[in-house]
Specification:
Blueprint: E1 2-10, E2 13-19, H1 30-37, E3 47-54, E4 57-65, H2 74-86, E5 93-98, E6 101-108, E7 111-115, E8 123-125, E9 128-132, E10 136-141, H3 150-158, E11 169-175, E12 181-187, E13 192-194, H4 198-212, E14 216-221, E15 224-232, E16 238-246, E17 248-256
Parallel strand pairs: 2-3, 10-11, 12-14
Antiparallel strand pairs: 1-2, 1-17, 3-4, 5-6, 6-7, 7-16, 8-9, 9-10, 11-12, 12-13, 14-15, 15-16
Bound molecules: 2,6-diaminopimelic acid (API).
2,6-diaminopimelic acid is lined by residues 13, 46, 65, 69, 71, 73-76, 135, 169, 187-190, 197-199.
Keywords: Amino-acid biosynthesis, Cytoplasm, Isomerase, Lysine biosynthesis
Pfam family, one: DAP_epimerase
Subunit structure: Homodimer.
Length: 258
């Protein structure tokens, strides 16, 4: 089977994107997903995204982590919107379907403004925080995230019994001067630090915004800068959440697989 794919990246979180409106891709073949995401034996990516038709929506995005597990992916969703524009499925605005439900988004030049699902509440876990922004996120403040052992410490929390059996993503944050946050993330399903995590920076922005009476947070990640806007309700919930950032097509390719 020959597969035409497009490689996209959103602040260094990278994805194999496939126009699968023909539904030819074997969506249960997780070994194939793992192979395509393998950085030595395949194309190489943090995840793989299928674009499919969906009644009542412009498209559906099906996201796989590199290990074949599925979740919502904020950076991947931004790339899916840019890819759908490239394919001519959408123009400037869209409503699409993902594993956590419907999302609205709009193109803003090379950036994408992605509507995230409402978040009902943050929770405390020890001195840390937990919030689900379409995928689960543990959030920990650290003294200097630039020098922090993200892989080692992130892995411990990801596999902690409190999160069994599904696990969680893990974000470490250090506030910078000027109200910006520096975030580094250990990602479940990639089982490593990624250069950024969209649902992760959204989780961090909600935690920081809640504590500092903000409704917009600029986030620095090793892969680039993102912005998160939201409305805090009196009941502790968050609505009108926007994840704003770039999405770039890096290259197009074909790959033959058995
Ligand atoms: N690894 C995450 C999904 C991808 C999240 C990340 N790539 C993003 O941009 O949101 C999980 O399994 O929950």
């Amino acid at each position: 089977m020959e597969i035409t794919f497009y490689k996209y990246q959103g602040t260094g979180n990278d994805f194999v994107m496939i126009d699968d409106r023909s539904e030819a891709f074997p969506e249960r073949d997780l070994a194939l997903v793992q192979r395509l995401c393998d950085r030595r034996f395949g194309i190489g990516a943090d995840g793989l995204i299928l674009i499919r038709n969906k009644q009542d929506y412009d498209f559906e995005m099906i996201y796989y982590n590199a290990d074949g597990s599925q979740s919502m992916c904020g950076n991947g969703a931004r790339c899916a919107v840019a890819f759908s524009k490239f394919l001519g499925i959408i123009d400037q605005r869209t409503s699409f379907w993902a594993i956590d439900g419907a999302h609205d988004a709009r193109m803003a030049g090379d950036w994408v403004e992605l509507g995230m699902r409402d978040v009902l509440s943050l929770s405390n876990t020890g001195v840390d925080f937990f919030v689900n922004t379409g995928s689960p996120h543990h959030v920990r403040y650290v003294e200097n995230v630039a020098d922090y052992p993200v892989f080692e410490e992130g892995r411990k929390i990801r596999y902690a019994s409190e999160y069994a059996p599904g696990g969680t993503n893990v974000n470490f944050i250090t506030p910078l001067l000027g109200g910006e946050l520096f975030v580094r993330t250990y990602e479940r399903g990639v089982e490593n630090e990624t250069l950024s995590c969209g649902t992760g920076v959204t989780a961090c922005a909600l935690v920081y915004g809640f504590q500092n009476q903000l409704n917009e947070v600029n986030i620095k990640t090793p892969g680039g800068n993102l912005r998160v806007r939201f409305t805090k309700a009196a009941d502790g919930s968050f609505t009108d959440i926007l994840l704003i950032g770039p999405a770039e097509q890096v290259f197009e390719g074909k790959i033959s697989v058995q």
